[in-house]
Amino acid sequence: MAVRFTDQAPRTLHYTQAYNDSNSDWEKLDPELDMKISEQTVEELAEIFRTPLTGTYNWDYQVQDDRIKKLYNLGKQLNWNADFDIDWKQEVRQLSEDEIAFVHPFHDYDEYLALSAQAQENFTKHMHTWTISQFLHGEQGALLVASQLISCAPTFNAKLYASSQAFDEARHVEVFNKYLDERAGLRYPVNNALKSLLDKILTDERWDLKFIGMQIVIEGLALSAFQAIKAITPDPSLSDLLGLVIRDESRHVTFGVNYLEEFIKTLTEEEKNERAMFAYEACLISRERLVPTDVFEYWGWNQDMARELFLKGNVFADFRKLLFTRVVPNLKRIGLLTPEARLKFEEMDILQYENMANDGDIDWADLSRPLDIKGSPEASSG
Q: What's the predicted TM-score (pTM) here?
């Protein structure tokens, strides 16, 4: 079950014209930069992975679980379009000093204080852009995993739902990419920790491990992060974007909890513990994926010192733990807080969340409420 950590994920930063447009008084980049593609860049742009995926036909087309069918139907009803349902021209509000201190813990760091006011603002943008870039890369991973689940999920309903989730994930990749291209103008490469976890999930042949790694851990953490950033972002377009993505992700996590809950009961104690320890390892690696070491490298900072300061920042330390408020209760609900795993999660200082609300009990009213689309033609004409 072990995840093999990689330190060789792509390292190329990608820029668009929007970066130059938003940095008239700061550094300008060569507009032909992205056309200068080296052999190494080509290898980074299209990476090949191989998996011993075991697929299944299912010739029984009967509805076996009405909950999964209802989630699938909601996915059909609540589609949205990034081109029409988000107003991409909304103005971004300027961050206050208190908000900047909340966004990153470097407001009193010597390296940060040595920067000009314009450079400090640019650094904050890089921190933000790094985070959104990891959302984009995670959503591509989710898209690939969902496509695998269509083949390897054993039941008819699960295959149908996985197909609807694949479409959701495609929209998420599209919308985060559009945001980075048109609003930020900069895209950071995938974090090594996130890449390592995605490699494990995508290249393992066991369908339930894919569910645990993606539906419970990665999507559960993402859902918490999306909600937190939506609450504090000064960019109304990003807030609207995240609101739409959150609706989709809530269904995905709920699907994973409901589908795995019954399956885990059929496993032996040894098999349960094996999967529980994988879930722990996935959480441990996911915690590391939250550290923006690429930003420190870009700005020429001492990465070890900056990382230590970042991890010790009171706001971030609390935020990093709070991201697990959905994951830990869901692991308990599906039966993966085994005695050995409990000790490990206690060491991570996140076991206190085990009795919080989980996503196993479906709130149909909340999941079924109409989309709040401010940028859509229907909304503006009403």
A: 0.87
